Amino acid sequence: MSGASMPWWAEWLTALLVLVGAAFAAIGSFGLVRLPTFFRRIHAPTLGSTLGVWAISLATIVYFSVQGSQLFLHAVLIAFFVALTAPVTTIFLMRAALFRERQKGGDVPPPAHGPHRPPRVDDEGTETPSNR
Amino acid sequence: MTPVLFWALKGALFLLAVAMLCALARLLLGPSAQDRVMALDCLYINGMLMVLVLGIVYASSVYFEPAMLIALFGFVGTSALAKFLLRGEVIE
Predict the structure, then answer these.
(1) Does B9 sit within 8 Å of A15, measured CB to CB?
(2) CB–CB of A85 and B59 under 8 A?
(3) Per-residue pLDDT tens for A34-49?
(4) Which residues have a Cβ under 8 Å from the Cβ of A102 and sit 6 or more positions away?
(5) ipTM score here?
């Protein structure tokens, strides 16, 4: 606990950002429990993985920059990494869920095989189940 | 460390623990497999945020590498599980 020499505004800013980020993460995870179906639930945790991660990363940047009296930007790396990977995993998971729901015969939109996207055909000439 | 920052950090750790418990509940209850994968992803993100907050609590910048590694392995794990759900195999 060597943060005794920090100015008051840095401590207040760190406290505010940490609390806001943790509150966003908690609200997002509570939505994960509360919402009824998977396709509504998938929206909830993105609150924690965008605003929560950014707020807590900014809090660590403020705290360690003021405490070490030099700019500390490692936490931006984490925020950028999560900002890059969270949409990828969400889209991947969404497509997997749509595929599985269609196989079960659930009430989801059909695959978008428009005139510009012919159905994929494998080596034996049979149509493979596409996940789009 | 002033009382304001001390109690804010305590509150943030409490909120993140509640968030991890919510994700754990969905992980255990989740009716379908994709629910469990999504809850695991959320659990990873919340754990990473908790490690970052602990880095502020102990005023040590050593905690960044674990947070980075948790984010990395969370991404790899969720991608592999989503791929498994989609195709039935991870590597074809």
Answers:
(1) yes
(2) no
(3) 999 999 999 999 988 8
(4) A108, A110, A111, A129
(5) 0.89
B61 touches chain A (CB under 8 A): yes
Provide the domain limits for residue B33: 21-87
Q: What is A33-97 written as a DSSP string? A: HH-SSHHHHTTTTHHIIIIIHHHHHHHHHHHHHHHHTS---HHHHHHHHHHHHHHHHHHHHHHHH
The answer to whether A96 contacts B34, with C-beta atoms less than 8 Å apart, is yes
- The answer to whether B24 contacts chain A (CB < 8 Å) is no
Cβ atoms < 10 Å from Cβ of A51 = 17
Q: Hey, what are B28's tokens?
A: 């255990």
pLDDT computed for residue A3 by the predictor: 47
Query: B71 touching A, CB under 8 A?
Result: yes
| Tokens matching residue A13 | 């800013």
**pTM for the whole structure:** 0.84
CB contact under 8 A, A33 and B52: no
